[in-house]
Design brief:
alpha/beta; TIM Barrel; 30% helix
Length: 237
Amino acid sequence: MIKTELINLMFIIIGHRGSCGYEPENTLRSFKRATDMGVQMIELDVYVCKSGELVVIHDDTLDRTTNGTGKVKELTWDELKKYDAGKGEHIPLLSQVFDLVNKQVIIDVELKDPQAAQPVANLIMDYTKNKNWSANQFLVSSFNHNALSEFHKCCPIIPIAPLFANCPKDLTEKVKQLDASYTIVNDKCITKQLIDDLHKQDIKIFAYTINDKARAHELKKLNIDGIATDYPDIMQL
């Protein structure tokens, strides 16, 4: 099992889709504001579009987050980049986010599209081999654990984190089976027992999505490793 020390901090703030409580989600503007707020990590979502590029967007359609309509996978990058994602921002390429962040914070790439596993691995390997990025500047996560496993086979030096909307009784075992050192879990499922069980296996746990400061304090007292939030500045403890 390859162990990569992603972070040494006791408690980290993850900018959910950047700083989406303030800026249009998953845009360069949102990621810049999150980094300016002092987050240690940003989270984003990726799909592969029709022309093969990795695009940063949460939904499989344009309808909710842009002034366009249609399915992301049925549109080319030239078509997608014309739409307004809010405040004049546009859907970015994953490489554009990497270049913007430029190693200032860790980047959590969530695989929304299972077909993104190999292209994301290829892009990350390019940045580690040719652009002087280190493996611990990335985390790759997904609710689709098969896609996560595929990514891990392609790029085993990069830490991975299975996502859970619900907590099965064998959650810790599922994380171990994926050879993951991290997991990201719905806040509603978080218990002291779960955190302790994961820590006993040397697995770090993050909670999503925390926008209440009192809850953030509670989770910190439970010894959770970090939280994803839409409001990174408010959640700084």
